[in-house]
Design brief:
binds adenosine-5'-diphosphate; Glucose Oxidase, domain 1; elongated; 35 helices; binds magnesium ion; Dna Ligase, domain 1; TIM Barrel; pyruvate, phosphate dikinase activity; alpha/beta; single chain
Length: about 850
């Protein structure tokens, strides 16, 4: 088996065998770029070495010596020959880039003789000894595991003793003294010696690089990035070029485009008279690459041409290492450059416009998770490094916010009106808190999961939110909260990171996410590829407008209960709920209908001819009831009854298991007038908009929590009768539909029967998950962590669809539903509608559209296109 390939050798191997660095060095050599000569030992050799129990490298020795001889012939230098010493670097290079995780040795081939030879030959003893001390330092670190910092400490001590600040200010004598000291460090640490035999240096370095595949930081990195641990690393042996030589010498790193913004043009840094990693090590402050243009104009132009050529060849932004030796430019590495989300979109768009790649390639290179950071502010990454972390909760809604904490919605509102930036901190939120939530920079709750009230409402508003903070306890009465042992009073300043769920003490600098033109263009390309549409869950005119701005094709879920949150509405709602006879309820309902008419009209106007799915009242009624005594008294006055009577009626509504209680369509079975009011408000406003705007409006009326075919049939008949009577009176027609959410497991199992009277299905995956697992979505925050840590669940099923369980029920429902009605429209309107892997699954099941909160629409559009392109490949 051939284990060694010269860079210049004609071969067709890839990163798998040659490692990323080696494959690109070979590629660049073949392109005729100025790459120092060298060869690559394959990953197969590493695997063989490591599986041999690291016994020896014998199987490689002959080949290695042959490869060295060939390199000696090419470079007209010999390893260990003081007259013409060949110096090489021994560089690791894994198949998948693991920056800085493994080891490299530079200047190998120097010993007490060759260093003198190099000094004589270059007429530069200082340079020769600088290389030698670097070799002894790196070799000690890489081969003998002597900590870098021990060498650095000696270097610093020497500089201090000599009262100089820069390495380059040390004299030749200083360097020789340093080399002596370094050699004693070998003895102290390992009773070892720096080998004077250059072949020993080479074999030991190669073996050390092989072994570095198994060092702890490389292992951790592989685990974090899910990189196959059996691949092994390649080793590159390459002739040294010297940026620390003299005259026009230096070394640098550069990107072909700005990795932060994506702007075209060289971006990078360099240092004159420096070697290897001096630029990134922060020993001296490097110069921006633009300065090179003034300092060494010819080299700069040469480098620019070379960078351009590499980018065209690899069809992507490149991250390059270069070295200049005595006015001669060399390129030492190139790879696909890492970049910020903003840069990723800009670069993808520019590369398509420049004709380097096609749209499909551009789409596949992007990641849905990149988008959230573009739509919401983020904290300054520098500031985050030192920020004092208080605690971590579930990242319910992305964003970054700093503000003063308040523990009840009213106080938050007052502070907001006084001009303060506020953060609402609660045990959990309820509809009563809505006014405080609207004015908050961020919402934090100690309880609740990713689909709790706070999470859902915050996501809808695009407001930063962290929920389920187990280490937070809120004392509303004392106006203080315990943040993981730290007691904070009302008005204290905290910073909330909705991207990570982390909460910090004090203010942090932030960067505003700006939605960029590149994103919109690329998302339009996505829509052309995706077979599954993306709709939005939205209810306020602001959310609806945002949803359409972000490209939603329709509204998959308009939750009507959220429309009763405002103080005036909540009051009417309470009157309606607590009325104990039909006539009183109808008076309150009539007032609510007026308000609903305006709500729906605003939505239909914004939606134009796009479909709007409006869900009728869903939550248990007691959620709307007043808890504070003052509110109860006000209500008693309005209803002209005693406070005691109000208390009695409220108590009568309390349920033991409200989530499984009197809610959803069950409300309509007992109080048909509520849904009748709602459908009339929907149809009347749709009709008004239809006349005004001159196009058809097609409302989709959706019944929540249907579990039996008879329930569906009964309500469908009632509501159809109500609507048709009204339309007949008006002598008008409207193309409305009445369908159902599929969110009770039983509904999935009898979907064929339900489909008889349902015009469409929409999976409510939040409730369906809750009822399939029997996990309360408002309490899962307490134990989901333990479930994930112990690998009982790989992810939160409220965020990522549980394909095995919930997914199986969905498959049954779709198959049965379409058995009855082959053309049945089927959507998904739970929170998982915005999750990329869930989208792929839904598409495979034959779902027509997914619907998610407005701020997730853009990433869902990208995910949908990627699913399609990947399955097409
Ligand atoms: P890493 O993967 O950690 O970047 P590298 O193998 O790229 O490690 O090498 C570390 C540093 O040494 C880089 O700055 C690189 O440019 C430099 N270097 C590597 N080989 C040579 C060489 N033959 N001549 C000069 N500099 C080199
Ligand atoms: Mg490198
Ligand atoms: Mg539901």
């Amino acid at each position: 088996m051939q284990y060694i390939y010269a860079f210049a050798e004609d071969q067709t191997l890839t990163n798998t065998e040659l490692g990323g660095k080696g494959a690109n060095l070979a590629e660049m050599t073949r392109l005729g770029l100025p790459v120092p000569a060298g060869f690559t030992i394959t990953t197969a050799a590493c695997q063989r070495y490591l599986t041999n129990g690291q016994a020896e490298c014998d199987f490689l020795k002959d080949d290695l010596m042959k490869a060295v001889q060939q390199l000696e012939a090419t470079t007209h230098r010999q390893l260990g020959n003081p007259e013409q010493p060949l110096l090489v670097s021994v560089r690791s290079g894994a198949p998948i880039s693991m920056p800085g995780m493994m080891d490299t040795v530079l200047n190998l081939g120097l010993n007490d003789q060759t260093v003198e030879g190099l000094a004589k030959q270059t007429h530069n003893p200082w340079f020769a000894y600088d290389c030698y001390r670097r070799l002894i330092q790196m070799f000690g670190d890489v081969v003998y595991g002597i900590d870098k910092s021990i060498f650095e400490a000696e270097l610093t001590a020497l500089k201090r003793a000599k009262q100089v600040t820069s390495d380059t200010d040390l004299t030749l004598a200083d360097l020789k003294q340093l080399i002596q000291t370094y050699q004693t460090l070998y003895q102290n640490t390992d009773d070892a010696q720096f080998p004077q035999s250059v072949t020993a240096q080479l074999t030991l370095a190669v073996e050390a690089v092989f072994k570095s595949w198994l060092n702890p930081r490389a292992k951790t990195y592989r685990r974090l990035h899910e990189i196959d641990a059996t691949m092994g690393t390649a080793v590159n042996i390459q002739q040294m070029v010297f940026g620390n030589y003299q005259g026009q010498s230096g070394t640098g790193v550069a990107f072909t485009r700005n990795p932060a913004t994506g702007e075209p043009g060289l971006f990078g840094e360099y240092l004159l008279n420096a070697q290897g990693e001096d630029v990134v090590a922060g020993i001296r402050t490097p110069e921006p690459i633009a300065t090179l243009k003034a300092q060494l104009p010819t080299i700069y132009e040469q480098f620019k041409t070379l960078a351009n050529q590499l980018e065209r060849h690899y069809q992507d932004m490149q991250d390059m290492e270069f070295t200049i030796e005595a006015g001669q430019l060399y390129v030492l590495q190139t790879r696909i450059g890492k970049r910020t989300p903003q840069a990723a979109f800009k670069i993808a768009l520019d590369l398509v416009n420049e004709g380097l790649i096609n749209r499909q390639t551009a789409i596949l290179r992007l990641k849905p998770a990149m988008i959230e950071g573009l739509l919401h502010p983020v904290f300054d990454p520098q500031a985050l490094k030192q920020a004092p972390l208080l605690l971590t909760g579930l990242p319910a809604s992305p964003g970054a916010a700093t503000g003063a904490i308040y523990f009840d919605a009213q106080q938050a509102q007052v502070a907001h009106e006084a001009g303060e930036k506020v953060i609402l901190v609660r045990q959990e939120t309820s509809p009563e808190d809505i006014d405080g939530m609207v004015v908050s920079q961020a919402i934090v709750t100690s309880r609740g999961g990713m689909t709790s009230h706070a999470a859902v409402v915050a996501r809808g508003m695009g407001c930063c939110c962290v929920v389920g903070c187990a280490q937070l306890s809120v004392d509303t009465d004392q106006k203080q909260a315990d943040f993981n042992g730290q007691l904070l009073k009302e008005g204290a300043i905290i910073s909330v990171d909705g991207h990570t769920g982390r909460i910090y003490l004090g203010a942090l600098g932030q960067q505003t996410g700006k939605q960029q033109a590149a994103l919109n263009t690329i998302l339009d390309w996505c829509d052309a590829e995706a077979p599954i549409d993306v709709w939005a869950n939205a209810e306020t005119p602001k959310e609806v407008a945002t949803a359409f701005e972000f490209g939603a094709k329709g509204l998959g879920l308009v939750r009507t209960e959220h429309m009763f949150f405002g103080p005036e509405r909540l009051f009417k709602m309470r009157e309606m709920i607590l009325a104990d006879q039909l006539s009183d309820r109808q008076i309150a309902l009539a007032a609510l209908k007026e308000l609903q008419l305006a709500d729906f009209k605003a939505i239909f106007e914004l939606a134009q001819d796009r479909p709007c799915t409006i869900r009728l009242l869903d939550p248990p009624l007691h959620e709307f009831l007043p808890q504070a005594t003052a509110d109860q008294v006000a209500l008693a006055t309005a209803l002209q009854i005693s406070p005691a009577e109000i208390k009695r009626r409220i108590a009568a509504k309390i349920e033991v298991n409200p989530m499984l209680g009197h809610r959803g369509s069950r409300l309509a079975v007992t109080y048909p007038e509520i849904y009748q009011m709602q459908v009339l408000a929907i149809i009347e406003s749709a009709l008004a908009v239809q006349v005004e705007q001159g196009h058809a409006v097609a409302p989709k009326i959706m019944l929540p929590l249907i579990g039996t075919a008879a329930e569906m049939q009964l309500l469908k008949q009632q509501l159809t009768a109500t609507i048709d009577t009204f339309l007949a009176q008006q002598a008008q027609t409207i193309a409305y539909q009445i369908g159902t959410m599929i969110e009770v497991p039983r509904a999935c199992l009898v979907a064929d029967q339900i489909a008889d009277s349902a015009d469409f299905f929409s999976f409510g995956t939040n409730d369906l998950t809750q009822m399939t697992f029997g996990f309360s979505r408002d309490d899962i925050g307490h134990f989901i962590g333990a479930y994930q840590e112990q690998a009982i669940l790989s992810s939160d099923p409220f965020q990522t669809l549980d394909q095995d369980g919930v997914g199986a029920l969905m498959r049954i429902a779709i198959q049965k539903g379409r058995q009855t009605k082959p053309e049945l429209s089927i959507g998904v309107c739970g929170e998982v509608g915005g999750d990329p892997s869930s989208i792929a699954f839904c598409q495979a099941l034959g779902v027509d559209y997914v619907s998610c909160s407005p701020y997730r629409v853009p990433s869902a559009r990208l995910a949908a296109a990627q699913v399609a392109l990947q399955t097409r490949v």
